[in-house]
């Protein structure tokens, strides 16, 4: 396996060996569409995941002796790869880009597994001062954004958002956090726009765009 720095992707593994143990550990997403698609992928590869107790987080793949499967939240798959608690995993590119933090010890083995297609999109209100905003250039050039009154962006992807706005020349941006229902923040007046994950074919809330942020943010 190469020791080179990784580009964002799907299946990832450490470039060095962690503390010795008897079994190789693989992290898989524990719930959601990503988990379902991952199980379908393994099934298509003639690999069956045997989980003795549905309440437990550990399973085995009988076709691969010595491999432990650990079901984790997608974010924890990346974190535990970095900590050395697991050796390889399947995770979305969004989680990888947000949490890998350029770790050179993480290597992308396969970046296009054929499922989980989505992108990050900016959601901008279609009314008020944003009524005529239909491009990033117009959003950036609005005179409203100053050091005292920065563009307020609510998102769950702060690292990706920080890189994206810096690469696009935004000088005055503050990133805010919220757990779910991000679109409520602009409606309440606590944020100006949102940056969120959007599935293929879906629309962000009342947007002009949406503008894809996933590739420019890399």
From TrEMBL:
Gene Ontology CC annotation, any one: cytoplasm
Pathway recorded for this protein: Amino-acid biosynthesis; L-histidine biosynthesis; L-histidine from 5-phospho-alpha-D-ribose 1-diphosphate: step 1/9
Keywords: Amino-acid biosynthesis, Glycosyltransferase, Histidine biosynthesis, Transferase
Domain (ATP phosphoribosyltransferase catalytic): residue spans on this chain: 73-201
GO MF annotations in UniProt: ATP phosphoribosyltransferase activity
Claim: Transferase is one of the keywords in the record: yes
Catalytic activity annotation: 1-(5-phospho-beta-D-ribosyl)-ATP + diphosphate = 5-phospho-alpha-D-ribose 1-diphosphate + ATP
Pfam families in alphabetical order: HisG
Enzyme Commission designation: 2.4.2.17
GO biological process: L-histidine biosynthetic process
InterPro entries associated with the record: ATP_PRibTrfase_cat, ATP_PRibTrfase_HisG
EC main group: transferase
Protein name per UniProt: ATP phosphoribosyltransferase
Upper taxonomic lineage: Eukaryota, Viridiplantae, Chlorophyta, core chlorophytes, Chlorophyceae
């Amino acid at each position: 396996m190469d020791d080179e720095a990784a580009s964002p992707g799907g299946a990832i593994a450490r470039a060095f060996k962690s503390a010795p143990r008897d079994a190789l550990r693989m992290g898989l997403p524990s719930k959601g569409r990503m988990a379902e698609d991952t199980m379908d992928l393994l099934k298509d590869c003639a690999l069956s995941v045997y989980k003795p107790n549905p309440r437990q987080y550990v399973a085995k793949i009988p076709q691969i002796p010595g491999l432990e499967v650990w079901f984790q939240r997608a974010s924890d798959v990346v974190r535990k790869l970095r900590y050395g608690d697991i050796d390889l995993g399947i995770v979305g590119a969004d989680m990888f880009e947000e949490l890998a933090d350029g770790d050179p010890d993480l290597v992308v083995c396969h970046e296009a597994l054929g499922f989980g297609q989505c992108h990050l999109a900016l959601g901008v209100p279609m009314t008020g001062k944003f009524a005529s905003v239909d491009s990033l250039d117009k959003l950036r050039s609005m005179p409203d954004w100053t050091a005292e009154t920065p563009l307020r962006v609510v998102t769950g992807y702060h690292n990706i958002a920080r890189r994206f706005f810096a690469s696009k020349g935004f000088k005055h941006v503050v990133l805010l956090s919220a757990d779910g229902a991000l679109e409520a923040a602009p409606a309440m007046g606590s944020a100006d726009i949102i940056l969120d994950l959007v599935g293929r074919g879906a629309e962000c809330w009342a947007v002009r765009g949406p503008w894809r942020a996933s590739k420019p943010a890399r």
